[in-house]
């Protein structure tokens, strides 16, 4: 047996939402846990997100008199991705995520609440839950604080570079590398891969998502696809590798995410010619490619003060306002001047929008404007581009979040969660339902941590 510098019952690679939820669950199961994080401070893709976790049947929904259920949530996921995700996995995560959020609130003090003043496309109920700032930075910071209070060790500036596997697929340990190039070996009883997908790996993006190969990457550069590459080398099954989340609303050039509430509440996107070019309401993920197809890969999101008030609950939107990215104008003419869009075309576009809303009609792109309030001055606009956020395909896992082989058998002590595991969005950008990324991070993270912790405890008994 190989000798290791140190051995720990449960090792977790990645300190984002998935990894930290896994760490808290494994610790609760009684196991000693070590989290490896390649960065100086845990941030990752979670910190770049809006920090909203969709969940159904929660106490926050009941308090707000929102009728919802895991089954309804699962149906929404399957409808958005036209039946392509694995139904068993969808059922697993939609049943698990609500209890996971209540656990994080009750056991670890995370102050979740449900958003009630707008709904993301594809969700049939208000089920987005977030912390007070509505930011991913707060979510990962609070999870890190909880881990530290629980006595969980987080080793930063430590990049896992190789797994050590026995003939039966059992992971005996791994090699990690420090910034100075020094390498250490680490033994483990169970390993959780929570190091996200491959969005930062240009080669893998070109291979699996060629339409966004030259797009702005708005995810974490450390998402190099190691989990997928390690898994494939071990003979693990992968699924839906082209699946991804894009976003058609990243403020350019400041690089700040603009909430899609600017669209769902009645805003539209126009290109540099002042014309609309799509059904913006279908979803922000598939909108990324549509924006990038426009001249210079640029669009303007046009909305008004009412919508800005709703968007203002998000810290990212407030940052964009502070950065001067959100323009204000008292008239369409002034808006055209501020955005340098052709006034005649913009005037015609917004007049048509007014007619559609007045009649409650559906436009030529298929967007229905029934019941959507009119835009009224003062107007707002923000210059945006499309971006790749994170990938949704990955390692196939079972209901215990154990990594499986193509024949369905599970590796003895290897787990995956979050972006390292195949998500529930199918193989297309259009299959991404808002919040799917943090859904599998939180739900599978807790499941993986519980499983790894119990396995490690059993091995030590």
Automatic annotation (TrEMBL):
Superkingdom of origin: Bacteria
Assigned keywords, A-Z: FAD, Flavoprotein, Oxidoreductase
InterPro entries for the chain: FAD-dep_OxRdtase_2_FAD-bd, FAD-oxidoreductase_2, FAD/NAD-bd_sf, Succ_DH/fumarate_Rdtase_cat_sf
Coiled-coil region(s): none
Record's protein name: FAD-dependent oxidoreductase
Any Pfam family: FAD_binding_2
Gene Ontology MF term list: oxidoreductase activity
The FAD-dependent oxidoreductase 2 FAD-binding domain, residue ranges: 10-427
Organism: Roseomonas indoligenes
Cofactor: FAD
UniProt keyword Transcription present: no
GO biological process: steroid metabolic process
PANTHER family cross-referenced by the UniProt entry: 3-OXOSTEROID 1-DEHYDROGENASE, FUMARATE REDUCTASE
